[in-house]
Design brief:
It is built from four helices and five strands. By secondary structure, the protein is an alpha+beta fold. Helix 1 runs antiparallel to helix 3.
């Protein structure tokens, strides 16, 4: 005879994404999304804009890493224009430094993986 176990509500599925700079995996809401559009590369504040997307932590260190190289171009499969790059660099200056209270990862995990 089978015993029936009480069924509780299933835990809500949280979409996981990977930061293209540090490669840390976290919930989608812990990141800022970049999206490739017909106008170039844009910051997707809603996280739902159509187009190919890439995710970055909301801290300056990750943005500086990808803007020094070509990871954005690889992830979005697009050539980053000078205007796009300067707009993203300008946005980077509004982000908190790494390791601050605004760090996206709990318990300092983000810093530990970089060391």
């Amino acid at each position: 005879m089978m015993t029936s176990q009480p069924r509780g509500a299933r835990p809500k599925h949280v979409p996981q994404r990977t930061c293209i700079a540090c490669r840390q995996i976290a919930g989608k809401r812990a990141f800022i999304r970049l999206v490739r559009t017909d106008q170039g590369v844009e910051i997707d504040s809603t996280g739902k804009a159509p187009g190919r997307g890439a995710y970055l932590h909301p801290e300056r260190r990750c943005w500086e890493i990808v803007l020094k190289g070509n990871r954005i171009e690889q992830a979005l499969r697009v050539k980053l224009t000078a205007a796009d790059r300067s707009r993203l660099l300008e946005f980077t200056q509004t982000l908190p430094e790494a390791g601050g209270e605004d760090d996206a990862a709990p318990d300092g995990q983000h810093q530990a993986q970089q060391a």
